[in-house]
From TrEMBL:
It comes from Namhaeicola litoreus. Its cofactor is Mg(2+). The gene is pgmB. GO terms for molecular function: beta-phosphoglucomutase activity. The keyword rRNA-binding does not apply. Belongs to the HAD-like hydrolase superfamily. CbbY/CbbZ/Gph/YieH family. This is Beta-phosphoglucomutase. It catalyses: beta-D-glucose 1-phosphate = beta-D-glucose 6-phosphate. It is an enzyme of class 5 (isomerase). Keywords: Carbohydrate metabolism, Isomerase, Magnesium, Metal-binding, Phosphoprotein. SUPFAM superfamilies: HAD-like. Its EC number is 5.4.2.6.
Length: 216
């Protein structure tokens, strides 16, 4: 098969984007500033380290390295407590069906996520076995919008980048895919994801029918 699908995790496969947001928001509040959902768009798809940098910039706070490490640790602990009881009911609508369809068509499936928590999350959703390869925040050194994560996934699947479809809810991820001529499929609001080759408000609008059409 010449095509492949690369899925982002948070906000595409599972509704964990809200938990990342909640954990960052609490951290911001503890540091004494507000952090809105609109501002959170800048953190989507972005690594933990980079997210903290952006957050501190928003709050106009500067901290030493030790304190930053500690805050990232605390943020992650909080995030992990939110996702501790994750199960299949948190899989976003239509995603499982889409994975089943791709498997049935023998189309390789990759994960391309910035998260270092990707594997345990996929396992708790019982989706781990769908993936032919998993590239996550433990495997790459350059955060989205750098395309490293997607290029590595394509390479591991032995599929040319231009034949890869990338499903993403973040601007950084759409930019990463576009920069190496992958076909970007955005999940979210149009104004948040300019440049996406295709865009859907929700995962349930990314139907098997649509995927069949773009594969032909
Ligand atoms: C994803 C999410 C981000 C998150 C990043 C790192 O890209 O969209 O919100 O900050 O992964 O996740 P981690 O689980 O390693 O903190
Ligand atoms: Mg995401």
């Amino acid at each position: 098969n010449k095509n492949a699908f690369i899925f982002d995790l948070d906000g595409v496969i599972v509704d964990t984007a809200k938990f990342h947001y909640l954990a960052w928001k609490q951290l911001a509040n503890e540091l004494g500033f507000e952090f809105t959902e609109d501002q959170n768009e800048q953190l989507k798809g972005v690594s933990r380290v980079k997210s903290l940098e952006i957050l501190l910039k928003i709050g106009n706070v500067s901290l030493d390295q030790d304190r930053k490490e500690r805050l990232m640790f605390e943020k992650n602990e909080r995030y992990l407590s939110y996702v501790a009881n994750l199960d299949e009911s948190e899989i976003l609508p239509g995603i499982k069906n889409l994975l089943l369809f791709l498997k049935d068509k023998n189309i390789p499936i990759a994960l391309g996520s910035a998260s270092k928590n990707a594997i345990p999350i996929l396992k708790s959703l019982a989706l781990f076995d769908f993936f032919d390869t998993i590239v996550d925040g433990n495997d790459v050194s350059n955060a989205k919008p750098d395309p490293e994560v997607f290029l590595l996934a394509a390479k591991q699947l032995n599929i040319e980048p231009k034949y890869c479809f990338v499903v993403e809810d973040s601007l950084a991820g759409i930019q990463a895919a576009n920069s190496v001529h992958m076909v970007s499929i955005g999940i979210g609001e149009k104004e948040n994801l300019p440049g996406a080759n295709h865009i859907f408000n929700s995962t349930q609008d990314l139907t098997v029918d649509f995927v069949e059409t773009i594969l032909n």
